[in-house]
Design brief:
Mean pLDDT: 81
Protein name: Chromosome transmission fidelity protein 8
Helix content: under 10%
Largest sheet: 4 strands, mixed
GO biological process, one term: DNA replication
Distance between the termini: 45 Å
Subcellular location: Nucleus
GO molecular function: DNA binding
Low-confidence stretches: none
Pfam family, one: Ctf8
């Protein structure tokens, strides 16, 4: 599964996106119309690695630089004339390839 997300802006004002790559399958319920929130993405400052929280699971990942940057291009047709505009630049990907770890909350003590 590959998802794009906005990260920052380049010097020319074009947004810089990153690819989120997850090894495996994410099953979500499509009960709502519109965008669906899959999980929360966090970065730890101490070792600068991304952490993805999906429901009751945590995935640790790593940030990788792409060999070839990519451009996200938007096609616009105005008065029969086709124009292409650069919507964003993709230079990095966040790779989550390890197995998810369960989040365990407070467990009641046995009596």
């Amino acid at each position: 599964m590959v998802v794009f997300f906005s990260k920052s802006e380049t010097e020319s004002g074009v947004p810089e996106w990153a690819i989120v790559e997850v090894q495996g399958l994410i099953q979500i319920k499509k009960d709502q119309s519109g965008p669906t929130v899959v999980g929360d993405l966090h970065f730890f400052n101490r070792n600068k690695h991304p952490v993805l929280i999906l429901g009751h699971h945590v995935l640790n990942g790593k940030e990788m630089k792409l060999e070839q940057p990519m451009a996200v291009i938007e096609k616009n047709e105005i008065n029969g004339k086709v124009e292409y505009a650069v919507k964003a630049v993709v230079k990095k990907k966040l790779l989550f390839k390890s197995r998810p770890k369960p989040i365990i909350s407070n467990v009641a003590d046995r009596i």
